[in-house]
Amino acid sequence: MQDVKIIVCTFLNEGLTIRRLFERESYPVVRMLVLASMAIALMVADHFTQGLMRTRAVLSVPLSSIQYIVSTPIRLVNEWGAAVGSREQLIEERQSLRAEQLLLRARVQQLVALESENRQLKALLHAAKEAQGRVLAAGLLAVDTDPFVHRVTLDRGRRDGLFVGQPVLDAYGVMGQVVMVNPTVSQVLLINDAHSGIPVEDVRSGLRAIAVGDQYTGKLRLVNVTQTADIRAGDLLITSGLGNHYPHGYPVGQVESVHVKPGEPFAIIALQPMAHLERSRQVLLLWPATGRHKS
Amino acid sequence: MMYLQRTEPTGSIGLIIISLVLAVILTLLPLPEWAIWLRPAWLLMVLLYWTFSSQGMVGMGSAWFLGICLDVLNGTLLGEHALALTLAVFVAIKLQNSLRLSTWLSQGILLVGCVFIYQLILFCVQGFIAGPLVNWRFWLVPLTSMLFWPWIYFILRDCQYRWTGSRS
């Protein structure tokens, strides 16, 4: 009993001391050390574990209103610019859209024929059916993240049924995947972020590899491809569908250069992403069909 | 809370919060491609202003908390900006206590040093995570921050005097 009392008293004293440390301005070194070590501990925990994802998600709910505040005036200015756009401009735009539509229709006709042919061939091979997934268009919030990270913020969230790991596309190729979902906004990790890896395959040679983001150039790199592998500049790489994360067959990037250094085990291969990662304002969210396609 | 009962003009909590939120908004505002690396360290500048002239209401604790907010908003490593802001504000407090800088110019020179420390910490953390950064524009941020310091200083001081003047 006596021991417990002593321990409680010590604790109370300690508590008082700690409180005094934080009340007075005269211990900046101690405060700095405490805060800095807390920050470092958080950084280590965030870098090596996934445990802080929930904390991040909870914290970002109130903060997402700031993102809306930033985005609204810019959106209004853009809308106003579109509203007062001159008549000639609109007519011109309409004509070019028409021409594009005609072109795309012609291509779709070809695609229909190809698709039916493909289906017949697959039926012959008894392959699993590749069902179409659901898609949803989303807009980017006009929010700049740090130049260190390649992420974008979308104006859709859990309300619209988004989930972590969801693939995101634009009109030209794969953009990335959803990494954080809030009720109203969500964050997408772009494929050129250093933390992103995406399984790809070469359309020409069928070679499989992993494309990871290159932090500071905004491009992609193919990792662990041997120097003798059949890959050339100009090859198109599509998602391979391995890893059950991104669906099969969407364009990822084009090989820009292949460097072979004697003495190194692997070739250095740079990819230019097909998606317009810095310019797209509209993106597509994909719900892959539940029956996974097996190749 | 004890600071609020002092009589000399200090910052009021409302003004401090509004200015810090504005700084966060400026940090998130989209910039053209060439200016991304030159964005002044808005949050650090406003924090330093209040460190110099709010008599203890704003300090390392606020810097740490806002750093965490910035990390969540930006999606950077949790604690990265918190560490950088805390250390920069710490250096400012230490030097301010020993040098007693009072004019906007001398505080501006101190600010350049603090922004440089801030950048250096971010550079080191990024270097550990994703390899060394090679963009030289990154190191111009102390100068761009210096360019905006007089505006921040005089606008905030004006607001501060008006706000506290109307209150008392």
Question: What's a concise summary of this model?
Answer:
The complex is a heterodimer of chains A (about 300) and B (about 170). With about 300 residues, chain A is α+β, with helices and mostly antiparallel strands.
Which helices and strands, and how do they pair?
The complex is a heterodimer of chains A (295) and B (168).
Chain A: H1 2-23, H2 28-48, H3 53-83, H4 87-125, E1 134-139, E2 151-154, E3 167-169, E4 174-181, E5 186-190, E6 197-202, E7 208-213, E8 220-223, E9 236-239, E10 251-259, E11 268-273, E12 282-287
Chain B: H1 13-28, H2 42-53, H3 60-74, H4 80-99, H5 104-130, H6 141-167
Helix pairs in contact in B: 1-2, 2-4, 2-5, 2-6, 3-4, 4-5, 5-6
Can you say what the CATH homologous superfamily of the largest domain in chain A is?
A: Rod shape-determining protein MreC, domain 1
β content of chain B, as a range?
under 5%
The greatest interface between two protein chains, and residues involved on each side, is:
A-B, 44 and 46 residues
Structural class of chain A: alpha+beta
Low-confidence stretches of chain B: 1-8
Low-confidence stretches of chain A: 291-295
* Count of individual beta strands of chain B: 0
